[in-house]
Amino acid sequence: MAISVPRLMHAKNVLRQSKLFAGSNQMEVPKGYVAVYVGESQKKRFVVPISFLNKPSFQKLLNIAEEEFGFNHPMGGLTIPCREELFIDVTSRLN
Fold first, then answer.
1. 14: burial class by Cβ within 10 Å (0-12, 13-18, 19+)?
2. Cα separation values, 12 from 7, 46, 75, 92, Å
3. Sign of CA pseudo-dihedral 73, 13, 51, 86
4. What tens digit of pLDDT does each residue of 43-79 get?
5. Scanning 5, 14, 20, 61, which has the fewest C-beta atoms within 10 Å of its C-beta?
6. Rounded to two decimals, what is the model's pTM?
7. C-alpha distances in angstroms, 89 versus 8, 18, 70, 76, 78?
């Protein structure tokens, strides 16, 4: 699955990594956003709009997380066990 450069640039604007928001405290999440940890082995933290939670394609990712972890997420937050590239591709189509 190839990701086009314009889509990737758009995804970077939509998906804001937590360090862009948090300043010195990486645990802060702006109002209207939720932090998610993405990756199969190494997890990367992303901050996404809560409006994504209602989108069918994002809910498929949430179902994968539910099957893998149930309600016990090892990172202490919402963990989605998929490739980072897949996550970026899915979320870039949501806006």
1. middle
2. 9, 10, 23, 8
3. negative
4. 899 999 999 999 999 999 999 888 887 777 666 678 8
5. 5
6. 0.68
7. 8, 18, 24, 24, 19
